[in-house]
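User: Sequence recovery, please. Input:
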């Protein structure tokens, strides 16, 4: 059972482990026998400043409870230095939790390049650099577990967070691809969209809601995904928080199939708009539509029927 999961001898790097979710992961793995690298730059939630205190406090907590931990204060954009701390202190790395993150919320019309670039640097480049540095070690030892951190903002969009949403959905494509490249080396990668009370959310949610969203309640999902007993859950996208754990997957509508000749016009496509939107017979794909097969089917079709419609607006009026 999850209650008994141990991580003895495992070397785990948790980025952004000085507070919030990262701290909860670090304390948990430290209490379950793992050697923990507690990385944190120690800046503000907007990515300003730095301090050694955030990581040091968590390392102290783990050690006082009898666990093994070491601090690292580098920004995740220098991921190789963080992985280096793991290798120099504990000999290797088995588990990487890309968790560090910041916010730069701003309406898109006021977005500055700095707001955009800093978010991309911490979330996208940071996760890349840490995984890239761990990758050859994972491959060589034929063992690795990675968790990347997405967000509901990235999956569904979120007002005032174009930069953050773009960076967070990037974590999904990144994870899905690492899952494919790593599988044959026993490197598994999953991505989570967590929700938890932290300094990041304490200004946007009321206290009674925050009370139900303890970071500790995100930990068990991460624990089972990175445990050595997980040999198959790979490339998954999970929503987790407040005691709710769910999986997300892609859905493809039935779709329209049109003859590929000169009758494939905007009007012909609009005529099929309902098929494009028809999810009643949808599939849950793990890859792109099989267009070779579809082309074959399309060859059998007659010339595309042309609607009266010349625009989307007209179609809506006609139907
Ligand atoms: P938090 O602000 O409490 O923790 C993030 C930690 O990352 C901080 O300790 C910070 O110092 C550290 N950090 C920031 N930039 C860094 C850098 N360049 N290098 C190293 N460390 C750095 O926030 P929280 O809520 O614990 O967030 C953890 C992750 O979960 C983030 O990736 C966040 O985007 C994501 N997330 C959180 C949600 C929530 O409801 N709390 C919702 C969706 C996603």
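Assistant: Recovered sequence (319 residues):
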């Amino acid at each position: 059972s999850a209650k008994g999961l141990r991580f003895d001898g495992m070397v785990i790097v948790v980025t952004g482990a000085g507070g919030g979710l990262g701290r909860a992961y670090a304390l948990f793995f430290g209490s379950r026998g793992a050697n923990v690298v507690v990385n944190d730059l120690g800046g503000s939630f907007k990515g300003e400043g730095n301090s050694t205190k955030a990581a040091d406090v968590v390392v102290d907590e783990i050690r006082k409870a009898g666990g093994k931990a070491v601090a690292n204060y580098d920004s995740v954009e220098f991921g190789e230095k963080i992985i280096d701390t793991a290798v120099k202190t504990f000999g290797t790395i088995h588990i990487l939790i890309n968790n560090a993150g910041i916010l730069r919320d701003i309406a898109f019309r006021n977005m500055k390049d700095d707001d955009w670039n800093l978010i991309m640097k911490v979330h996208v480049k940071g996760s890349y650099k840490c995984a890239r540095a761990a990758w050859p070690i994972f491959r060589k030892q034929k063992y690795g577990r990675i968790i990347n951190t997405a967000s509901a903002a990235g999956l569904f969009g979120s007002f005032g967070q174009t930069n953050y949403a773009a960076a967070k959905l990037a974590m999904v494509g990144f994870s899905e691809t690492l899952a494919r490249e790593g599988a044959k080396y026993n490197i598994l990668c999953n991505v989570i969209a967590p929700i938890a009370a932290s300094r990041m959310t304490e200004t946007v949610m009321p206290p009674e809601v925050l009370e139900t969203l303890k970071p500790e309640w995100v930990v068990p999902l991460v624990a089972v995904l990175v445990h050595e007993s997980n040999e198959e859950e790979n490339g998954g996208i999970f929503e987790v928080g407040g005691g709710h754990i769910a999986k997300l997957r892609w859905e493809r509508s039935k779709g329209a199939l049109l003859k590929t000749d000169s009758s494939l016009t905007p009007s012909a496509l609009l005529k099929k708009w309902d098929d494009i939107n028809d999810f009643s017979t949808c599939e849950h794909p793990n890859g792109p539509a099989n267009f070779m097969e579809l082309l074959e089917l399309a060859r059998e079709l007659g010339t595309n029927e042309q609607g009266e419609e010349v625009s989307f607006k007209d179609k809506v009026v006609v139907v």
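The two ends are 56 Å apart (CA to CA).
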